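Re: your question about Arachidonate 5-lipoxygenase-activating protein

S., sorry for the slow reply, the queue was backed up all week. Below is exactly what I fed in.
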Amino acid sequence: AFFANKVEHESRHCNGKGLQRHGSSSFDRVYTANQNCGHAYPTFLAVLWCAGLLCSQAPAAFAGLMYLFVRQKYFVGYLGERTQSTPGYLFGKRIILFLFLMSVAGILNYYLVFFFGSDFEIHIKTITSAISPLLLIP
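Result:
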């Protein structure tokens, strides 16, 4: 909602009426940042749900909240210079990778239980709980 509100505000500020795609460079930056964030959310939601369901809910929720804050930083950074958005982008990529690895660990554990009867769920939850605070390191 914040991103869409910023696009609408910038459109009205630059053009005076209605949402129009062509405007000033500030409108183009806001619109592009909004589109980038919108395209990234389906991937984020997929790995967040998989990590939470298949591995551990608490580290997945923590990483999800961190990702939302990082996307906010990316968006605000994109409004200034494009180079200001780079740290938010890289940090978001790292969080997506963490959630993806949690998903893979959950899937591997499922198949280990199914085929071999070995359950490593406690170990995986311990490891992901220990690693998730490391996401705070920039």
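Residues 86-116 form the longest helix (31 residues). The chain has one domain: 1-108.

Happy to talk it through on Thursday.
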